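Sample pair:
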Amino acid sequence: MYYDSGKVYVEKDDQCISCKNFTKGVACPLLHALGLGVVTLDGTMCVTNCGFYEEFKRHLKIVDIGKSKQKD
């Protein structure tokens, strides 16, 4: 995670990527505080053990459109 030109960037190594709060946008207290300027971030930080972390599991299902058309 790093801050540049008024924006907070989350990288793929950060724990935020799989967090339920991150998927909801600014529901994450850490990102919200950074965005408001309450907390400052100098340089980079890799988020690995966040106290606000709640795992978000994505449930994706692959649908083959070709097979569903054949049934009709």
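The mean pLDDT is 79.
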